[in-house]
Here is the input.
Amino acid sequence: MSPLLQVRNLEVAFFTKDGVVRAVNGISYSLEEGDTLGIVGESGCGKSVSCMAMLRLIPEPPGRIMGGQVLFDGIDLVRMKRDDLHTIRGGKIAVIFQDPMASLNPVMNIGEQVAEAITVNLGYSHRQALHRTVELLTRVGIPQAEDRVKDYPHQFSGGMRQRVMIAMAISCQPKLLIADEPTTSLDVTVQAQIVDLVQSLQRELGMAVIWITHDLGVIARLARHVNVMYAGFIIETGPAKDIFKHPHHPYTIGLLGSVPKPDVLGTQTLVYIDGAPPDMLQLAEGCSFYPRCPYHTEQCLKERPDLVSVGDNHGAACWNVAAVQARLAAGPATAGAASGRA
Here is the structure.
């Protein structure tokens, strides 16, 4: 049986007055029905752009999909006519964005906005859609939903607005939910509630989830598989447990070394990754992480590494995997992971 989603060599670029920004550079991965994939990396690494390109939501121009395939249920979304994409967006693939206030219409009440999505995608009458809206808002934990459907976005807290977005996203029981940093602007308690809600709905509806974030704690809790991105490339991929216990790429090691661990507070030495993210207008021919990597060699400068197997369904794009692992084995888990310490 084929995976629900297959991304093959996807490339996305933005043509700007300063030059060509190669935001996504030939990434490939697959996602099974009901599974959860985490995509992590620092800002500008291509996490969100890669997923928005799948649904053709990047502005064209300046953006352009330069190549590759995105097979969803066997249909290539890249080559699908734009007029036909409405059968996929919202109905089969839903998205929750980072800022619900930017996604919700400030001059329409909440009930009308959720009901509109149901009417468009499922063909319900307006009355049926409003009844379904109350059910959905109740399901995502909004109290007194029958009264609150008449309220406007500014009358809800940030967490409640995100619950409205989740209600809208699941209204048509999608096969795939893309959550694009949906907890970033929320406090820690509300973040945990939103994560629990998505997990509960995933079990209930059997949908697959792609969770895009820079928060490794959320990924450790949610994802079964992880893609680590850097400069538009997937530089490490594998089961979440393996990557958290045995990271192989120096960038992944640096990310994990910078996260405080509650069980060793007071004794843990945090690390940081020297330097700054690469200029996406001038990507080097070799490894993009070369200038920041404490393990680099001349080969890293001249040749870009491909993903190579480092374990069961676990791959890393690094020429010096053996040297990295040898140095880690010789000292603490974070030793040498980055060239700086905090």
